[in-house]
Amino acid sequence: MLEHAKAFSGFSVDDVEKARAFYADTLGLRVSEDNGLLTLHLAGDRDTLVYPKPDHRPATYTILNFGVDDVEKAVDELTARGVVFEHYPGTAVETDEKGVFRGGGPLIAWFKDPAGNVLSVIQRD
Question: Which of 27, 85, 89, 98 is paired with 70 by a 20 to 30 Å CA distance?
Fold first, then answer.
């Protein structure tokens, strides 16, 4: 029944204007806003809906992964734009001083949006 439906993803934030500024100005994504809803226009025609939720609770898992050619470069550039990377000392996903996980699998670094949702940059093969 839904095999031909164009599905899309979405997540909540507590402040759409802060989210718009972060996703557009800090991350450099193309965004649009309509009826109080924000749409992230991601590469590959992967639009993602960002909607306000008064009782928003940040996702405790990664809601959006950005595949990049060079995690080191992405971390440096995002850090220069004010993004703060997460550190998980003493865990299975322990990160280094820059916030990069190097413990097996692709290099990955996690950060949060202004609403506290977890995002990542992850090295593509």
Answer: 89
Task: Give tens-digit pLDDT for 53-93.
Answer: 999 999 989 999 999 999 999 999 999 999 999 999 888 99
Hey, is 26 helix, strand or coil? helix
pTM: 0.93
Looking at residue 25, what DSSP letter applies?
I
CB under 8 A, 24+ apart: contacts of 41-48: 46/8, 46/9, 47/8, 48/8, 48/9, 48/10, 48/11
Name every residue whose Cβ is closer than 8 Å to that of residue 87 and which is 6 or more positions away in sequence.
Answer: 95, 99
Residue 18: its H or E element: helix 16-20
